[in-house]
Recover the amino acids of this structure.
């Protein structure tokens, strides 16, 4: 692991464990901690030239959630924050209680999981085209459905359950409940993905929200490695 990736992981571990109001809140809070590690070299929503291998983003540029510059090299961080409403009174600080009251239900688990894989795919493509050195993709959620296997669904190939996920093409899968026509419609905005690396997904606890109900936030923290150089 490079020194930069180590410092990014340290920054995430140093991030205050609280409930964020939104993905933007998560993004800005993380960026503030990263600024301590990389003073003057942290950018938000930074435009990078889009490789022609990226099919999930329109336009000529990809906008990295967070970009870090270090010794002339770029490192990108992509974030996903998917929530469900909190049903029980949280046993946490007042700021987090307010955030809990404002949480939205992001119930489209198929698209939520796909979008995380799309982040991985975009980051791999940027590395392959030497637009960045390496990257980190983070998925933070309090919705336990994301941790489950979803066999016999159209998005079973885009599962983000814990375990090893092999490299290769990921496709939407036709089922009795979803026609080929519906899949063709989905593919217009969320096309099949070619994943270049094999990854081990390990869910870890981020924040216990309620000791009564056991509701908690968990996260996937995934490093996208540099391109192999001869």
């Amino acid at each position: 692991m490079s020194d930069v990736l180590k410092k990014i992981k340290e920054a995430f571990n140093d991030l205050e464990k609280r409930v964020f109001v939104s993905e933007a809140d998560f993004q800005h809070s993380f960026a503030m901690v990263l600024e301590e590690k990389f003073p003057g070299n942290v950018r938000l929503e930074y435009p990078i030239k889009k490789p022609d291998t990226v099919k999930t983003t329109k336009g000529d540029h990809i906008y990295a959630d967070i970009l870090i510059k270090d010794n002339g090299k770029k490192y990108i961080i992509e974030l996903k924050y998917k929530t469900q409403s909190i049903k029980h009174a949280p046993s946490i600080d007042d700021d987090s209680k307010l955030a809990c009251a404002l949480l939205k239900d992001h119930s489209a688990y198929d698209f939520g999981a796909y979008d995380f894989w799309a982040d991985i795919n975009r980051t791999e493509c940027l590395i392959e085209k030497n637009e960045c050195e390496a990257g980190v993709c983070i998925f933070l959620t309090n919705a336990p459905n994301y941790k489950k296997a979803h066999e016999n669904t159209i998005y079973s190939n885009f599962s983000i359950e814990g375990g090893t996920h092999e490299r290769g093409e990921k496709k939407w899968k036709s089922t009795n409940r979803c026609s080929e026509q519906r899949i063709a419609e989905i593919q217009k905005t969320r096309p099949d993905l070619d994943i270049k690396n094999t990854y081990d997904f390990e869910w870890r606890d981020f924040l216990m929200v309620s000791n009564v109900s056991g509701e908690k936030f968990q996260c996937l923290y995934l490093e996208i490695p540099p391109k192999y150089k001869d």
Notes: The chain is about 30% helix and 25% strand.
